Each structure stands twice: as structure tokens, then as C-alpha cells.
Task: structure prediction
Amino acid sequence: MLTERQEDILRAVIGSYLESGRPVSSKAIAGGDALPWSPSTVRSELAALEGAGYLTHPHTSAGRVPTDVGYRVYADALLASQAPPPRRGSALDLSRMRREVDEAMRATTTALSQITDLLALVTAPPASSSHVHRIEVLQLQTRVVMVMVIASNGAVTKRVYTFEGPVDAGLVEWASSYLNERLAGLALGARMTGSILADEQLGQLERAFLDEIASAFTDLEERAGEDLYVEGAARLLSEEHAPDLPHADGLMRALERRASLLRVLRSALAERSAFVWIGEENPAPELRSVSVVGANYGLGYRNLGTVGVVGPLRMDYATAISSVREAAGELSRFFETVYEG
Result:
């Protein structure tokens, strides 16, 4: 358990290190307005903090740097703060996007990466969190049919099918009416979808046509990786961050395995507010040399997805936390307008 003085000194060390990137000496922080104690007192407390594992002492320097445990204390204090985020000229505003979910996801990742100068990640709501709103079956050419599934959250999935022979226009029109009647309101990816499409009371021609286009409905859950939006890899790998990212190759491998990263972020959906994973705390081994700052968005009674940034351990946690909170709040308001019921 840290004393109040130790907490103040630890925050001063971490704040100085985050700003300069250089190990912090007792002389650098002692005697200022923020820390009124003498250099000898500060030196004593720094030694105690190091002994307790909150700071470490690089052998090439007389100063100290924070450990993952030290960062955790610092981040927890920021997470506990409910102060409103500072206003920025690039603040996110999704109010004009109406029901374009894909556009909202991309705008969020772009703005978040620009604000924090880090890698931004946003997970879209899983297919199972919404239901079929409308289905359109359209004949594009004599043998080509397009199926559009419009979800209650505004997401649109399109599939194009090419048949061996000409398709009867009346059959296409019937399919559109039948599918809307039977599938509208059904959860996306619901298990009963297959049995509905295989209705034995249908004629052979109708059943054969539905068999051909069934994947437009039964594969809606198989989109892992497409529900993850990523922006800012170049920012994270810039010369500015390079000294603080000794294992950037592992991070890039994690980004390539988008489905795996999506599962990691969705494991945080149980979090009630903003969260921070620091170094070894990260669920994915490839992320254990970086920090992940995130917040969930949703409808109040359930979380739908996660907004987050990935950066080096030496990142601006205050800006990252306030920014993901702001982005999550904006997405929550956006989805309140596009979800039905």
C-alpha cells in the first residue's frame, strides 16, 4: 500500500518520463511546487518505490523509469477520474451519418488515431446483436441475382449469385416477398434460418432457388475480422514511437491475425467503463510489449463493441483514456438512433 507521498512522487516520475522519455532522477523532481520535499526524502522514497516494484533503475542511468506495476497505479488514478475530456478541434461527431454503420466505424478509427497519434481499433457490433430488417432479391442479369440483407443496425450485406441458366423474374420477386415474410425480425445468424429456408412445403423450384442463395443468410456470423476497423499503423510505427516499441514485429503479426485480435477485444465487452491493459496484462502474447486503452459503447443495457488505441507503454494515458471515452460515448449515441426497438 503506497502512502500519499509515495503516490505523488510516483506520479511525478511517470509524468516526467512520459514527457521526456528519459530516466528520471531525484534531482529532476525534488524541490518543485508539486513536490515540496527535500532531495534526500525524494531519494529515499524513490528507493522504496523501486524496491516495491513500481520503478526500475536502468543500469546505464542514474534515473528511474516506471514498471508495468507503476503504470498500473498511474492509469488507475486516471480511470477513476470522471473529469470531462478536453475539447479538441478534431472531436468526433457522428450525428450526420444517420444509419451508415460502416462509415461511422471508419470515421471513429480515423479520428481516434489522429487525436492520439496511436493505432486505433474499433469493433463493430456482432451480427447476433441485431436482426434482419429487410431483404431485397434483385435480378441484375438473366443469370445473375443479388441478395441484400439490411440489418436493424443499418449494416448492409450483399451477395451476388450467378446461375447456370436463366432465372425466372417471377421467382426472384416471389423470393423477395417470401424471405421478408419469414426472416424479417429474426436475429442475424440465427440457427433456425436454415430450417426456414429448407421448408418442405415449398415446391421443388422454389426450394432449389433458396438453396442457391442460402449463404447470404446462414453465413452472416462468419465475418470475423471484417468487424474490426483499424487505423494508424503508420503512426504507431513512426520514428517518434520506434524507441518505445522494441517488439513491433510481434504487434504487426497480431494485427495481421484480425480475427484473433477481434476476439481479444470482444473479451473486454464485460467491462463496464474504460479499461487499460498494460504490458503483461494483455490477453494476447503479441500485445505484451504495448498498452491497450479502450472503452465499450452500447445501448445502456448492453455493450455492443469496443473502441481502443494501442501504443507503447510510454504513451499519453490521459489523452488516450479521455479520447476513447469520448469516442465510445459518441458511438453509443449513434447506435441509439440506428437500432430499432
Remarks:
- The chain has a mean pLDDT of 84.
- The radius of gyration is 26 Å.
- Strands lie at 55-56, 65-66, 119-123, 132-141, 144-151, 156-162, 228-231, 275-278, 290-298, 303-312.
- The domain at 128-218 is CATH 3.30.390.60 (Enolase-like; domain 1).
